[in-house]
Fold this sequence. Notes:
Chain A has 349 residues and is α/β, with parallel strands linked by helices. Chain A contains 12 helices and 10 strands. In chain A, the strands form 2 sheets. Chain A has a 6-stranded mixed sheet, sandwiched between helices. A 4-stranded antiparallel sheet of chain A has the order 2-1-4-5, with helices on one face. The longest helix of chain A has 15 residues. The termini of chain A are far apart. The N terminus of chain A is likely disordered. The two termini of chain B are 20 Å apart. Chain B has 9 helices and 9 strands. In chain B, helix 4 packs parallel to helix 6. In chain B, strands 6-7-8-3-9 form a 5-stranded parallel sheet, with helices on both faces. A 4-stranded antiparallel sheet of chain B has the order 2-1-4-5, with helices on one face. Chain B has 218 residues and is an alpha/beta fold. Chain B has a domain of 114 residues: Rossmann fold (3-Layer(aba) Sandwich). Chain C has 306 residues and is mainly α. Chain C has a domain of 213 residues: MetI-like (MetI-like fold). Chain C is built from 11 helices and 2 strands; from the N terminus they run E-E-H-H-H-H-H-H-H-H-H-H-H. Chain C has a two-stranded antiparallel sheet with strand order 1-2. In chain C, helix 4 packs across helix 5. Chain C starts with 5 loop residues before the first strand and ends with a helix. The N terminus of chain C is likely disordered. The chains are: A alpha/beta (349), B alpha/beta (218), C mainly alpha (306). Chains in contact: A-B, A-C, B-C. Chains A and C meet through strand 1, strand 2, helix 2 and strand 4 of A and strand 2 and helix 11 of C.
Amino acid sequence: MTTSTVDAVTTPVLDVRGLSVRFRMRGGRFIRAVTDAHFTLAAGERLALVGESGCGKSVLASALLGLLPENAETAGSAVLGGGPGAGGGSGPGGGSGPGGGTDLLAADERTLARSIRGRKVGLVPQSPAAHLTPVRTVRSQLEETVRELLRTPRAALRKTAEEVAERASFPADHLDRYPHELSGGLAQRAATALALIGDAPLLLADEPTTGLDRDLVERTVDELARHTGDSRALLMITHDLAAAERIADRIAVMYAGRIVEIADAGDFFGARGPRHPYARGLLDALPERHFTPTPGMPPELGALPEGCAFAERCARVSEKCRVQPLFEDAVACHHVSLDAPEALEAEHA
Amino acid sequence: MLELDAITAGYEPRKPVIAGISLSVRPGESVGLLGPSGCGKSTLARVAALLHRPDAGRVVIDGTEATGWRHRAPRSQRTAFGVVFQQPRLSADPRLTLSALIAEPLRATGRAAEAADGAREFAARVGLGEDLLGRRPHEVSDGQLQRACVARALILRPRWLVCDEMTAMLDASTTAALVRVVEDYRADSGAGLLAVGHDRVLLERWCDRTVHWSEPAA
Amino acid sequence: MAETAEKTQTAGNTEMAEPAGVAWRVRGMRRRSTRTWRIRTSAVITLAVVLAVLLVPPLVHLDEQAVDLAAKLQPPSLAHPFGTDDVGRDLLLRCVYGLRVSLLVGVVAAVVATVIGTAVGAAAAAAGGRVDRLVMRLVDLFSSVPHLLLGIFIVAMFRPGVWPVVVSVALTHWLSTARIVRAEVLSLRSRPYVDAAISGGASRMRVAVRHLLPGVLPQAGLAAVLMVPHAVWHESALSFLGLGLPTHQASLGTLVQSARGALLAGDWWPTLFPGLFIIVPTLAIAGLAGAWRERLNPRRRSELML
Lengths: 349, 218, 306
């Protein structure tokens, strides 16, 4: 017992190191959607990956699920459920690293389909209405997934499916409805119920709140937080900062394919504020804050500059920014690591 | 003054989406109309912009009552409105380049000679660089495309702006940037604004006055 | 595992210098290559067919009608690769001539049917209301009668020949195009970009010509190409039933029809080769049309994701 508790603390559920994705385009060009992403996720932890549309965050999610299109190439590793030291030593040729973890980037389609998706990683999709099969009732979809993932005997299927729906607060009297007969909130719960069936240690929510009204957003993320509990880890990908603030313990900010800052959510949204200038700009743009946009637009992922990708929009740009800043002390900026937090705050105000 | 008086409208006979809604916007005023999704507020926005004929009720624009909608409305009345929709992908003709898209209203109203300069000027206003103007919608991001759609809505210098969930698909920074573009335009043209949306915080920050969906009916 | 987790060296990256030691894995190459293979095969076959049909008759001075009763019903040989028919005519030559006639009928009928279908569909969508409902009910009514029956009825009113067959095939095939075009126009017309155009002062004409027509034409063109194989099969069916072209004139249908007697006697080649000539080129055309359909929506999944 004691050893397993220690394990749970020291072993991350997901350990992403140097994850990069690029798309091969016509004429030998490459689009660098994700570059050198590092982060870990422990059980009971909720990480929100935030960034503007087109920053590469959805590509990162697809890479973790092995759902990239055919012209994608990946590098690095994303070890799921590895023992201590896993990940660093796992070669890209094999699906499993030392300590029993699986490298999601190297695993083949059979492994992903049979033992990862649904069983180790539960996906809460962006548009639940599109994620559900339109011609079948919620009950039949739940039962099918229960049968596939849990190998439940036929006689117990109905009961198990009802329990699963109950867990996601999906009302039992709506089980025999078709997806188009459900409201946005109920469709989201049905999709969440499906994601929870396999009791996967990692929940991956890809823009789960897009297009929902504010109270529905809050309900959805509260439910996600409840499902994460102490035993699972949640990776939520979103451009909705309010949703991220409500749910996450930690925030990872992505810009032009790179994670530029990872911070404790309390610090990020609280008095200290973000440390990377881009992240500060994101918060300042919120209508409940300064409502001022960061000038300019993100660079194209097919033509990234040599140095810091944010330099041309940054008020603090200097000579140093011609060189790509290293991701050190949880932030990738030439200026922040030198500054004391007090100085930053003074400038911010 | 833009007056909507007891508007009833829908898409099927005898199944109105909105019934007996009244709302008015004074010149230069910005009004935010707040409501949950699916309540019919977009339909009201389309009625106001003369894009959907109501089953009953009157629309009065600067003292003149509208008698026709869509193509049946006189051109000068239609072009008094600049309209921006929620989904930039659906509101842009996929075959046009961004510069053709922005200048399309100039060409459609027989001012093709001004098209090139106009497109450049308004692209600059919304923060689109020259390098993007030759691209087609599928080659740019949602945020960039919505910037082009805002430029298109402003290029005929309308007296009224109707923004239907303009920023629902966008991130915070692009939202703030586009709201600023619209407000800058209103500041120097004196145009009135009807902004429809479900984000209370945003509309309260953006508009002079917000109206909740349950209120205009009363 | 080897097929997906293949390790490759970075090569040909013109954009940026790679950090040393980054190993890229390439995923899912297989699906793409079968697709390319399918398109190439279709293209090669279609090209060969078009060249054969266009070039053989003017360049090769052989008479496909030449009768040689001494060499009747010869199995395939070097002199006659496809064998000969019951009056000793060379089957390869007759297949090429037959394909020429069948394709001509198919292409002309498909074009005529597409023009009629596009016009009716667009007009119904533009008119809307009662006119639209009336026209579409008529289309439904016509569609409820089996094609072939209606086609037979039409050819039966004329003397056998190429043009009655064209008319018969065209008049029975515009219905689906009319439906496709009407649906497409209606769907395009309700797009916000048409609203935006109206608000920008565009006239009806301008909306139709600049925003609707360019959206519909590729669909109509695709429908026309997809209809060519269908029309060829139809021509073959009519001729096989003895209602299409006169039996002395080689078309794929008449060739199969006149081979029936030989087939009963165990001579397979007069049926097999014209049969293959019906199936293979039409499948190739359909394959190319499929590739074209994919191109109509040129965005790759990676672009959608970004």
